[in-house]
Amino acid sequence: MDDTTGEMLGYTMETLLQAGALDVSFTPIYMKKNRPAIKLEVISEEDKADQLQKLILTETSTIGLRLRKAQRLVMKRKNLPVETEFGIISVKEARWEQIVKYAPEYEDCRKAAREHGVSLAEVYRKAEEACYQTEEGKK
Amino acid sequence: MDDTTGEMLGYTMETLLQAGALDVSFTPIYMKKNRPAIKLEVISEEDKADQLQKLILTETSTIGLRLRKAQRLVMKRKNLPVETEFGIISVKEARWEQIVKYAPEYEDCRKAAREHGVSLAEVYRKAEEACYQTEEGKK
Amino acid sequence: MDDTTGEMLGYTMETLLQAGALDVSFTPIYMKKNRPAIKLEVISEEDKADQLQKLILTETSTIGLRLRKAQRLVMKRKNLPVETEFGIISVKEARWEQIVKYAPEYEDCRKAAREHGVSLAEVYRKAEEACYQTEEGKK
Amino acid sequence: MDDTTGEMLGYTMETLLQAGALDVSFTPIYMKKNRPAIKLEVISEEDKADQLQKLILTETSTIGLRLRKAQRLVMKRKNLPVETEFGIISVKEARWEQIVKYAPEYEDCRKAAREHGVSLAEVYRKAEEACYQTEEGKK
Amino acid sequence: MDDTTGEMLGYTMETLLQAGALDVSFTPIYMKKNRPAIKLEVISEEDKADQLQKLILTETSTIGLRLRKAQRLVMKRKNLPVETEFGIISVKEARWEQIVKYAPEYEDCRKAAREHGVSLAEVYRKAEEACYQTEEGKK
Amino acid sequence: MDDTTGEMLGYTMETLLQAGALDVSFTPIYMKKNRPAIKLEVISEEDKADQLQKLILTETSTIGLRLRKAQRLVMKRKNLPVETEFGIISVKEARWEQIVKYAPEYEDCRKAAREHGVSLAEVYRKAEEACYQTEEGKK
């Protein structure tokens, strides 16, 4: 898309996510006639596809869309609340075969950082610490 | 492609479009050994594919290409000439189900901007105004 | 910065803007050892510089900052409320020497688009129309 | 700039170069509210600065510009026509202290490639060959 | 991926290439909540896919992967050693139908440039010269 | 630079870092005639500037360079070796006014990850844990 503004695209991303898109991203590209442009990519479940297509055609200037079915491998996710000095933080556990990893929930961390006047990095660190201690305690 | 220069790529884009490619774009990427590179993407009708593949293999340094059939959803396009103080400007109407949108034709606008010594934005604005007045007059 | 995550950077942008930065942007770059990285640029008034520097050093992993005084040319801005079928929309007028241009206020347009169930583009169009009619009426 | 389209930017680049800018480039960046944007950079001689500033403010949506004097180190350039099987090609010689390098003139190469139905790379190669043979012959 | 650092990604690229991936690249993208992110793309033969998937899930923070079979058109490659004043340099010949092109082997050129204290461009040039002389001698 | 290949640029980055540049980065940009290009930025101490300029002019196709003195704010750095189950890892401590942060040394972590067959993320985590325990122990 070389004739939709960044403002319109920011609005479109917000609208697509509210409407249930799983993932929305912008990739900077270069098109003919020296036009810097953006490739908009949207991942969604099949049943939402029609609605999201309409959204894109309405809110952006694009004349066409490419549609592609994708095979996805997704790790099993579980929510684990952990206690930290900043309160309870949700941690997302992801498992696939032997692989396990943990990631603190962004919105919880952000809220805690603002409330306690500490850096976001510090909240993440404490949440990860608590989480790994819990998990290692279980073993 | 990490061993074709920007000059060669600019020339390749021009050549591909002249040969009938529907769309050509460059995406900046990063490859091994600290090489900034470009991903060249070409969309074309199936019957032009062979010719465009030869073009890419001849004009760039690439050793291989990935080929993929894509399902496309394209809005119905129609040309509407509108009268403005800068002369006749073509406006492209695009329709799909309930969605209708208009976009002034770039080349006409550019020519008018240069001839009348006004900004391209002003020509676009007048063309859109005239276009929406025409369409709303019709209702 | 090649060792701060996108999540942390998104949080940092939000925090810098809240703290009074005039402008914050991310530029994708490539660094040594095949590291994709981000260049964070912040524009601010001189009196806010210290506070924003502290913020960057606290919230990101960066060890250093480059500081530069910049000479800026800024157009004179004025707010013009215009009436549209979607309610009152603020339009920003910008003037410098002979150059005048108008841009509808994003937040007003967004609110109107959501309330009236129309595309953001349509709200922008009506706001621009109303604005230019007002201005041309004045002449 | 997050509210100028790619089409407008392509037109602006063309206009700036015609007006005498030495160099014009677009850098993809990311701004607040999820807006993909473009940073427009223009290099020019000081005496052209005012005219180019007006152009940018007229043709794009930007409200302000940053101005910076830059110290430049430029190699001494000379034009060397060389004979190739595709006709005469201009080659640019660049010298600075002990460093000498040659680059075939793009427009000549492009013309020759089209006229003779060969790849641009082949024309470049022959022009470089002829050029280095000439230079080495001189030694 | 918006929560893996550039350092981790650089390490991941190295590990994937060691494990037999044919191609690994990073594309800068922009995701929700103002997060600059990276799209990691890996091309591999089918039999290596499982192993590389495990690697990506282990070394990065990603929760899921998209998998896609691709049809590839690859030119026939052959290694041609050529003699230059800097020693023997391998040149890769690539053929497909009528198209033939040559590219000096990077690692050989790099080694020669360092050993002989000349620019990489000069080594490439001599290697290409030698290569085309050989090929044209054969005709 | 729109006429230097990614291979040459990767080599140039390596050479500049070996020659003592503090920082080298590539920024993808777009230039005239549809050329995707790269902006090469090098930060160095003043006494190395001449040598690095020569390197750039020799190894790349660029005809000119922009030179700029920059004012830098750099945190005080110290090396702290910490003991982990993977051996001794160096951790970099950075201090400025009230701000303190720690970052495990990449090369040590990488070596440990390979030797012990664990993910790089796990080594980083253990090193950070050990580091913060040490620091908090000191308080």
UniProtKB/TrEMBL annotation, chains A, B, C, D, E, F:
Pfam families: Ni_insertion (PF01969). InterPro entries: Ni_insertion. The keyword Glycoprotein does not apply. This is TIGR00299 family protein. It comes from the Bacteria. It comes from Tindallia magadiensis. Keywords: Nickel.
